Amino acid sequence: MKRILIVSGHPDLNDSFANKTILEELSKLLPHAEFVYLDKLYPDFKIDVMAEQERLLRADIIVFQFPLFWYGAPSLLHRWVEQTFVHGFSHGHTGDKLKGKQLVLSFTSGAPEDMYRHGGLQNYPIEDFLPPYKQLANLCGLQWEGYVYSGGLFYASRQDENELLRMKEKAIVHAHTLMEKLNALA
Length: 186
Known about the structure:
By secondary structure, the protein is an alpha/beta fold. It contains 6 helices and 5 strands, in the order βαβααβαβαβα.
């Protein structure tokens, strides 16, 4: 059985509903996975690089779970990557520690999926925002395994009970879709 590392990059999971629901559901579906909650471990952005690199070394499959903020990962997840994926560890002449491991993105957006298209409000398909992650995988010798994405999980809508129920159901479906993807990789 492959070891799965799920890295939650939400900057404040206590103030989340979609990512929080996804992670809660995943913890039930994948009880043997290792979950890392960056907001709880590193609210000050002071990453324990050695501990995080050890987690990466143990993993076969690495999942970045995050909300899309301004078309990319939140700054906390970005900082974690900057600190842990360093030359000599993840890339460079001697940086082959992640080679062959699998990378999966799991992310959400407030804007509905249909806004991410040419001519839509976001002007580009969601795929057009992923090249930095694909290149991260390429540079580090990771196998890019794609992503699971759910849009229309708008933070401000959580005050409406019906909308909150719809979004909670969508987040649970997201978690199940991700579990199926991970099981297919295992």
